[in-house]
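EI: anyone free to look at a 121-residue chain?
SC: sure, send it
EI:
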Amino acid sequence: MRLIDAIYENRLLSRWAALLPRPASAIGSIHEADAEFVPLDEARWLAVKVDTVAEEIAAGLYIDPATAGRIAAISVLSDLAAVGAEPIGLLLSVVLPRGDVEAVQSRVAARRGIRGRHART
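SC: here you go
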């Protein structure tokens, strides 16, 4: 077994790729880039990426929702930078725990969470 196949997340992504056909216009293949590219027209592409950091939260690496929000944003922005994309927005994917959902939402979006110090509000 190749090392990349031994990594659980990569096995999950490979399974999704097998179940869901990729468009003919897709650049590269699965596990080849930090973000996916979608053609907008002849000269422009949209780079897209999402990361919930759900596994890291489940493993207890991030307990404070503000930290989880900040790490999720940094992860996505870092991957977009790796492919040379200029961010125009942030797609937020959040898995909320049972219980005080509104408090968790507030902490994820807090100044030290998704909004960060330099984010536009």
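EI: The chain has five helices and two strands.
SC: 👍
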